[in-house]
Design a protein that fits this description.
This protein is an alpha+beta fold. The chain has helices spanning about 1-10, 10-65, 75-80, 90-95, 95-100, 125-145, 275-280, and strands at about 65-70, 110-115, 160, 180-185, 190, 195-205, 210-215, 220-225, 230, 235, 240-245, 255-260, 270. The protein has seven helices and 13 strands. A hairpin with a 4-residue loop joins strand 7 and strand 8 (about 220-225). InterPro entries: Cell_wall_metabolism_enzyme (IPR050570), Dup_hybrid_motif (IPR011055), LysM (IPR018392), LysM_dom_sf (IPR036779), M23ase_b-sheet_dom (IPR016047).
């Protein structure tokens, strides 16, 4: 009986147990493999989550933007110089146009400007791509129209138009803008639009340093807020001759050239300067 007992079940039990153990071992081997697969599957999710969390901070750091509060006496060109804005006042104005408005020379104390702002690479790039051809065409037209066969020329080259003629506003004693502003940095060459005689050159109160020239057709051109004058009263000038440099003298918030056409040499006799220039073959804006 004991011998039979040895051959009856213990062996079978050992065999069964070994199968079970083998099965268990297979399962044990499979489970860590599945567990490892699960861990590896979770890793990308964790990485993405971590990256997504870090992205805004990284983008913000890369942008390097800061806010500047405009102070009395500030101008966009002055701020751009002091803050080392790459692209100068034009870039600063472009980044803050919605806050500044249509006239870059009119910035008020307390206005918040973003410095170091970068354009988005998506829709902004597409928009730029769409506007490039027309912008190039406009630039070419302006370059070709700075002077004409009629003997007239623009008072400044490559300038953008800021405040237009007869724009209403309480900052002007007449209740409206009596000329047109050409947005240029201090030190830009100012030229006589046509041949004529200088009737006045000097300080003009709110206009700062100004020059007034009488032309052959009886009209007068006025150039205001200049930083330096190159002519004097009684002097004869030719079309395109330098008469001074642009600046920010008088009642201004930033450097620009205030330009008028008048029927007399005095304030209050203004006519549309853009229409006048166009009537002499000069394209403006």
């Amino acid at each position: 009986m004991p011998a039979k007992g040895k051959h009856r079940r213990p062996k079978s039990q050992r065999f069964t147990r070994s199968i079970a153990v083998a099965g268990t071992g297979g399962a044990a081997l499979a489970l860590p493999l599945m567990g490892a697969t699960g861990a590896h599957a979770a890793t990308p999710t964790a990485t993405v989550a971590k990256t997504a969390t870090a992205a805004p901070a990284a983008a913000k750091k890369a942008a390097g933007t800061k806010t500047y509060a405009v102070k009395a006496g500030d101008s966009l060109s002055k701020i751009a110089d002091e803050q080392n804005v790459s692209g100068g006042w034009k870039k600063l104005y472009s980044d803050n146009r919605s806050a500044v408005g249509s006239d870059p020379t009119l910035i008020r104390p307390g206005l918040k400007l973003t410095i170091g702002k970068k354009a988005a690479s998506g829709s902004a790039t597409q928009s730029s791509a769409k506007t490039t051809p027309s912008s190039t065409k406009s630039a070419a037209t302006a370059a070709a129209s700075t002077s004409s066969s009629s003997g007239y020329t623009l008072p400044v080259e490559g300038a953008t138009v800021g405040t237009g003629y007869k724009v209403a506003g309480s900052m002007w004693s007449s209740g409206y803008h009596t000329g047109v502003d050409f947005v240029v940095p201090t030190g830009t060459t100012i030229k006589a639009i046509a041949a004529g005689t200088v009737v006045s050159a000097g300080w003009g109160g709110a206009y700062g340093n100004q020059v007034v020239i009488q032309h052959a057709d009886g009209q007068y051109s006025q150039y205001a807020h200049m930083s330096a004058l190159s002519v004097s009263a009684g002097q004869t000038v030719t079309a395109g001759q330098q008469i001074g440099l642009s600046g920010a003298t008088g009642n201004v918030t930033g450097p620009h050239l205030h330009f008028e056409i008048r029927t007399t040499p005095n304030y209050g006799s203004d006519v549309d300067p853009v229409a006048y220039l166009r009537s002499h073959g000069i394209a403006v804006g």
